[in-house]
Design goal:
α2 runs antiparallel to α10. It is built from 10 helices and 11 strands. With 254 residues, the chain is α/β, with parallel strands linked by helices. The longest helix has 20 residues. The strands form 2 sheets. Strands 2-1-3-10-4-11 form a 6-stranded mixed β-sheet, sandwiched between helices. The protein has a 5-stranded mixed β-sheet with strand order 7-6-8-5-9.
């Protein structure tokens, strides 16, 4: 076997080992609930999870990511108890594939145009995303829910192609967009209002003629191995304590 072939085999083995180490697939446990959750909910969910764990003396293992990425992970593993999904497309996919045991609508996401404090580029509307002096970031429409929402908004406004052609970065989560604005890597992005608030960004509302709203569903999966505790967790997301945390972080309870 030649040196090149050996090197290729070693590289492939290392890649497989990396995937095993870093792709998080939940394992069954009696006092655990395994949750898939859109990354945009992290600012509130981290606190809610701690509160639930303290109250019930259990463990919530939560995987955050763009909805497309975590949905692919779930469809491949078919392991998990709860899926908190902020994209109607993926809720429909879960339902079509028979993975929805029950669900509850917990929030409504509203996109806004976000930018740095003080609005240094004087952004006022979607048309400003076309300016040559404005560096734009968007969610990848194939991965995070905000990417699909932004695509719908820009298509409604008739400027999707022009904005996409000048977009500096496409991200796999909405959180990355907020971070890029904070660091100055981009000037503006379409993000959820709650993310703009959580990250201390300024923002303007999007004209209602173009804007969309995405419901957020908490789904108990048919693959759950802890149905009772999973139902308790989904129910907990609607309690006053959870609603208070959601509101504090800028989310809109359903």
């Amino acid at each position: 076997m030649g040196n090149k072939a050996k090197a290729l085999i070693i590289t492939m083995l290392l890649l497989m080992l990396t995937l095993v180490l870093f792709v998080k697939v939940p394992m069954h446990a009696k006092n655990k609930v395994f949750v898939y959750c859109g990354a945009g909910l992290k600012p509130a969910m981290d606190e809610i999870v701690k509160l639930f764990e303290s109250k019930y003396g259990v463990t919530i293992e939560i995987t955050y990511g763009g909805v497309g990425a975590i949905a692919s992970q779930f469809f491949a593993s078919k392991i998990g108890d709860v899926f908190i999904v902020a994209d109607p497309l993926y809720f429909d996919k879960l339902e079509e594939k028979g993975y929805v045991k029950l669900y509850s609508k917990v929030l409504v996401f509203t996109p806004v145009i976000a930018f740095a404090r003080g609005n240094p580029k004087k952004i006022t509307s979607l048309s400003d995303l076309l300016r040559s002096d404005v560096k734009v970031g968007l969610g990848d429409p194939r991965v995070p829910a905000i990417g699909r929402a932004a695509k719908e908004i820009l298509e409604r406004a008739g400027i999707a192609g022009a904005v996409y052609n000048k977009t500096a970065v496409f991200t796999s989560t909405v959180n990355e967009l907020a971070t890029y604005i904070k660091t100055g890597a981009i000037n503006v992005a379409i993000v959820w209002r709650a993310i703009a608030i959580s990250y201390g960004l300024d923002y303007v509302e999007i004209n209602s003629k173009y804007n969309v709203k995405y419901p957020v569903y908490a789904v108990v999966l048919t693959t759950t191995t802890n149905e009772k505790l999973s139902k308790e967790f989904v129910k907990f997301l609607k309690t006053e304590d959870s609603r208070r945390i959601f509101v504090e972080k800028g989310f809109t309870p359903a």
